Each structure stands twice: as C-alpha cells, then as structure tokens.
C-alpha cells in the first residue's frame, strides 16, 4: 500500500526548518560566595545586540543584590563580575547594594553558547528556607527577565521554582 502522507510530512519538515526560533535560557545558580546567572542561546543562530533586564522585585523571596559590606544585604557580599562572554552593565559601572534590578548589554551570543556573570543575591524574608545569605530556587520564582534583540520589542519570562526562565524570541 502506498503512503500518501509521506510527501506532506516531508514538506512540513522542510518548511518548518526555514524558520528557526531563538530562545534564551536563563539559569540562576546559588553558590557561595558568588551566585551566578547563566544566559544560554539555545537556538541555531547568532544573537546580536541584546539588552537584558533582570527584575528580582516580584520574586517570592523579595530578592536583592548584595554588592557592598554595608547596606541592605546580609554578611557576605559580591559585586557584579563578568565570568564569560562580552557583556556589560547597561546603566552604570556597578550594581548598587540593595537594588533588585539590573540591565545588561550583550554584544552577541553564538548558537548553543552562553554568557554569565556573578553577583551576590540575598532574600529579605523574615523566615527563609536557607537563611538570608543563600537563595533557593523557590525564592527566585516569579522574578522576571526580558530580552530585547537588535532593538526589537522585548520578550519576557519569569523564573520557575528551580531557578530557570526560558525567554522565547522571534525567529532568527
């Protein structure tokens, strides 16, 4: 018996391959003494001229950045530091102690590659799962991140209870 569906399926696969979608996966990694954010381009295309806005203010743990020995943070502090990739702070040279937002400019992220930075993140809850100086995945839940690529309208996502967010961008 001849299968008539085969040409239709093959055509659909060829057509779908012409439109590659770009996604950026963002992972928060709790670590002492420096916490880490890793942004991975999970697509098959180069992403250029990204603006990334990270907002911790709506997180379950009411998270803040602890960048100095004085101020809103608890005990251990760490300033913003690029670990991998060509990225920099968009608004100023440093993140202020107690801030809950930061903006990054990323020159590019190759397909299946990542960029990352470290900074100290503390929660501000009176009762917290791991104490104020350590942040659990559930405490970063609902924090938001948006990514703007080459001046196009930003796409946004929120972190889940495992410290991950997936920002779905337009096609490559």
UniProtKB/TrEMBL annotation:
<protein>
    <submittedName>
        <fullName>Aggregation factor core</fullName>
    </submittedName>
</protein>
């Amino acid at each position: 018996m001849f299968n008539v569906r085969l040409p239709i399926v093959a055509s659909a696969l060829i057509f779908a391959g012409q439109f590659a979608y770009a996604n950026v996966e963002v992972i928060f990694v709790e670590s002492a003494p420096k916490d880490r954010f890793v942004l991975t381009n999970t697509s098959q295309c180069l992403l250029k001229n990204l603006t990334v806005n990270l907002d911790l203010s709506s997180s379950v743990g009411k998270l803040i950045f602890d960048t100095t020995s004085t101020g809103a943070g608890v005990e251990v502090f760490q300033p913003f530091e690029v670990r991998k990739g060509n990225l920099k702070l968009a608004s100023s040279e440093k993140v202020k102690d107690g801030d809950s937002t930061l903006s990054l400019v990323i020159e590019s992220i190759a397909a299946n590659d990542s960029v990352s930075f470290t900074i100290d993140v503390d929660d501000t809850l009176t009762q917290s799962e791991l104490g104020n100086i350590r942040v659990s995945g559930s405490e970063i839940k609902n924090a938001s991140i948006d990514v703007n690529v080459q001046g196009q309208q930003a796409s946004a996502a929120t972190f889940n209870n495992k410290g991950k967010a997936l920002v779905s961008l337009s096609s490559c």
